[in-house]
Write a sequence for this structure.
């Protein structure tokens, strides 16, 4: 089970400040106005050799004028339910409030390890007021300063004592991570089970059976990677309950953590707007993409059906049209292993390093044959190209007038790079710098 630490508390006690400190990020918005955090934020934290997920929740309120009050309260309750350890954050300067007592009653029902985190204990003199917070009924009270980090080391020692040593050691660092994504009931869990040859995920005809993102390690045929089955991603308007809402968030987190997204489309209904949204999301996070058109066995077809559907899919996704498309039947185990081979190839393309000499030799010749069009009588001359280290193939083109490179010419350069260097399935980033 994942190690999850939920930070809870009423508004404006410093939850987002602590979240940012634990995750060493600036993901959560901080403001003196209460109620800034409305949704949960996720981040990864590490203390010693233990890795865990931190969830920053919205401020717990009751009887306010905030139209989001009920939704925030339900989200806090879900986070408490999902967490392994709960941090109950309070404010030393205001003392125990009625809202703190209400939340304490909610947290107590969870039967989870709870740490009362007394924030804003910035000076030794303030330590005299800590005793008041034992009245909330929890044994573990830790004074800290989220803003400067005082006391957080002791708190982290206590939190991580609940996590087994081997919790993160089962999955070696650096293994490729593939996420199976798609709308509900397209066959994601069946695909995972067919690959692993075991019932790793529950499969039914009911859309939304998978609620958790399930990690599995695949070690066959010389391949070694982590593959994650996720809950179906549907439109926000169709998300009916809070557990499903939480599942969708975990699917998005699996997407963010992955290197390559295997996005499944239902062949019987074709590409729909939500499929386009999922592909756009993967593209926005610079992930490798493989499109898997499943249930191909249920489609009436002739010798041109696959090409027609592939053309239709690319037209709907344009200009994001660089990914391979495979037509599969999970039930018949048709092309499912080719899909995995293609995902491995896309992973290799994503981290491909192209020598600078080769880049310049090939592309400068293409640029010479088709130079950038002159703008306002000014001629752009590209002189040198190099690759930057990044999470997807990223290249810098050094030229005299970078501001005059237009989008159609950027598309031309991207197409030439794909043609010469086999960058199928991965987004490419181009930067133009003055030299």
């Amino acid at each position: 089970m994942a190690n999850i630490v939920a930070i809870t508390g009423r508004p404006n006690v410093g939850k987002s400040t602590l979240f940012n400190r634990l995750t060493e990020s600036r993901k959560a918005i901080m403001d003196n106005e209460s109620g800034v955090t409305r949704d949960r934020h996720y981040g990864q934290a590490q203390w010693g050799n233990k890795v865990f997920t931190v969830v920053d929740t919205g401020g717990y309120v009751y009887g306010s004028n905030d139209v989001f009050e009920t939704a925030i309260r339900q989200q806090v309750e879900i986070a408490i339910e999902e967490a392994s350890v709960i941090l109950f954050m309070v404010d030393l300067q205001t003392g125990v409030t009625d809202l703190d007592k209400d939340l304490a009653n909610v947290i107590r029902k969870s039967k989870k390890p709870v740490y009362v985190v007394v924030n804003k204990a910035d000076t030794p003199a303030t330590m005299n007021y800590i005793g008041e917070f034992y009245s909330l009924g929890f044994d573990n009270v830790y004074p800290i300063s989220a803003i400067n980090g005082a006391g957080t080391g002791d708190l982290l020692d206590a939190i991580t004592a609940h996590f087994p040593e081997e919790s993160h050691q089962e999955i070696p660092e650096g293994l490729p991570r593939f996420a199976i994504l798609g709308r509900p009931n397209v066959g994601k869990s069946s695909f995972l089970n067919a690959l692993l040859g075991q019932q790793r995920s529950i499969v039914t005809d009911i859309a939304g059976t998978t609620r958790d993102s399930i990690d599995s390690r695949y070690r066959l045929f010389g391949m070694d990677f982590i593959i994650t089955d996720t809950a179906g991603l549907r439109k926000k308007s169709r998300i009916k309950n809070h557990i499903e809402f939480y599942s969708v968030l975990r699917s998005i987190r699996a997407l963010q953590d992955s290197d390559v997204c295997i996005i499944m489309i239902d062949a019987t209904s074709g590409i729909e707007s939500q499929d386009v949204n999922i592909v756009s999301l993967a593209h926005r996070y610079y992930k490798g993409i493989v499109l898997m058109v499943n249930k191909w066995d249920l489609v009436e077809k002739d010798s041109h059906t696959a090409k027609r559907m592939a053309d239709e899919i690319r037209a709907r996704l344009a200009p994001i049209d660089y990914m391979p498309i495979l037509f599969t039947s999970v039930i018949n185990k048709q092309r499912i292993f080719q899909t995995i081979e293609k995902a491995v190839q896309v992973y290799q393309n994503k981290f491909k390093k192209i020598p600078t000499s080769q880049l310049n030799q090939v592309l400068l010749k293409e640029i010479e044959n088709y130079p950038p069009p002159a703008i306002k009588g000014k001629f752009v001359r590209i002189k040198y190209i190099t690759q930057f280290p990044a999470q997807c193939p990223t290249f810098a083109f050094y030229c005299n007038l970078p501001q005059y490179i237009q989008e159609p010419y950027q598309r031309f350069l991207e197409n030439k790079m794909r043609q010469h260097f086999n960058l199928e399935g991965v987004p490419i980033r181009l930067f133009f710098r003055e030299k």
Observations:
- Residues 242-257 form the longest helix (16 residues).
- Residues 267 and 333 are 15 Å apart (CA to CA).
- DSSP finds eleven helices and 15 strands in the chain.
